[in-house]
Amino acid sequence: ETLDAIRLVQAMFESGSSTPPAQALQALSTLATFKPGAPPAEARTTLAADRPAPVGGTPALGGTSSPIEPAREAGTPGAAADLPFSGDETIRINARRLDDLMTDLGELLVSKINAEQRQLQFLRAQELTANRRKSRASVRQAYNRLAHYGHARDGSEAVRHTVKDIQRVMKYLEEDWQRWHELDTLLSTVARTSADDLLHMSLTIDGLEQSIKRARLLPLSTITGPFGRMIRDLAQASGKEAVLQMVGTEIELDKHLLERVKDPLIHLLRNAVDHGIETPAERSAHGKPASGTVTLKATPLDRAVVIQVSDDGAGLNLSAIREAARRHSRTSAAASQAVEQLDEAELADLIFTPGLSTHAIVTSTSGRGVGLDVVRRNIEALNGRIAVEWAVGRGTTFTLTVPLALVSSRGLLVRASAETFTIPLGAIEGVQRITAQQIISVGGRDALAWQGRTLLLVHLADVLNLPRAQALTTQQHLPVVIIAAAERRLALVVDELVGEQEIVSRGLGKQLVRVGGIMGASVTASGEALLILNAADLIKLATGVGPRSLVDSSSADSPVEPAPRHHILIVDDSITTRSLEKNILEAAGYDVQLAVDGLEALSLLANGLPDLVISDVSMPRLDGLGLAQRIKSNERTRHLPVILVTSLDSPEDKARGIEVGADAYIVKSGFDQNNLLETIKQLI
Fold this sequence. Notes:
By secondary structure, the chain is an alpha/beta fold. 43% of the residues lie in helices and 20% in strands.
């Protein structure tokens, strides 16, 4: 039966099922109740009857002639002691079951919050009864005098009736006093036991929370398995040699965090080979081994883990980064001048800028400037941080600091525009109160000097596009919350700091998944809905807030002029392709003009310049390559971005696109409208 059960489990596993059949579980359970080597009682007779007779008197089992010891019954003393036990036993748990446990834990946390509110209510009831006692003490003397008058003898009938009424009232008051005394005693007892119950429940829930979090942990090696081969294949494709060394991959992280940190690690590893490791000839010329080394190292740090991706390559090419920044800011003379004044640290930070790439042309796999931008966005979403260090000729190191788990159970409650919000404590670096005199102006925007940094200072209501609840005065002290995501920080002004509270995050549903600045919702102890703010989103939204002074409300109702619409010229001889691209761009908010070939496009350019040109390659009269070459060779149009969208995907065709100066090259066979819109956004 055991062998059949094992075969059945193996067959189920090979078929992709992770749940063993009931028959196998029953057989293995029966086997576990017996001493190893002893058959089940019900099977002993069958085994004895079916077993062939020993040859030459050799025992059939165990190699000894001693009789088989009868198995103990389950539950008898010593039965458990006969079973082998390992303190490192593991069990496979479906991830969905763990998610259900986390949901149940969330409900327990809500109950805990409610219990804390009940405790406050009990304390309030005690306060009320204490006030009642003080009131009773103040009328006690009058009560004693009335009781004394009730015993006085007087022949008047009216007096006797009055005395009876007074005695009746006094009896009621006496009983009422007793009831109040009992209620006071009861409330004291309930408050004391409630506090004990709350303490016990808090300890239980905290222990359960930690146990569930530990159950969700998986080693980093769970996702790093394919990385070594990926590095070798990428190096070979680039004409380089590289190996991957991994240290500390036994460190455990939350399962969901592992899934979300995998893509950033892949981006950084590919970046190390593509931009960091040199060719064998270049390495030999600098006295390095022909094969480069990429290192992935993980170390624990308090409640976080530090993951470093480093290489022993050439380091950051600051000249290439500065040139890419010039191309990225070519539409603004002020921005171009600012690029020239950047120091090394500021230049290094530009590698995380969306749309900035040191590649000369955009292709489907590189040059769009989204690699490190994706890394920063993903790390921000994890409430983590990223930093880069480099040394010329010695290599580059990217350091990621991410929490061990994604669950943050406490947040800071703040108020803005008469609404209450909560900010996860993991996203807060500091809280302080400032005056108007501490606000400085940088580039026409309010800013705050904080720990040697200059932070953008905005009001939470302005970021969330809400009306300010009240006008701020120069004498008023403003509560400011310093939030951080990755290496970016923001000084956020709020109307009031309410306090700290445990939060249970709930999703907003598919309908509200794209609401800016909001990551979820929770509830307060009173049952009020509470929106949880997303620090990374707030920092991004703050950059789009207009220059509005925090202490000047005169511009509160001033109209906001709409942003100008970008104009795009589409050049294609196919009416189907022109219509498709036109519909996509107009739906995205662009103004579109059409041309059927390169000559018509040049005629339209002579009358006015668009913000960008999208052109096919194969067209009559003047093809896309000729059009791009004429645009780039003309001093009036040379800064005009050109995207070639074509079915020609050979390396030679892409090389021709680079030669004529095209800014992006998109192949129709892998056309994706999101890729097109993202490329347009980066080039304009």
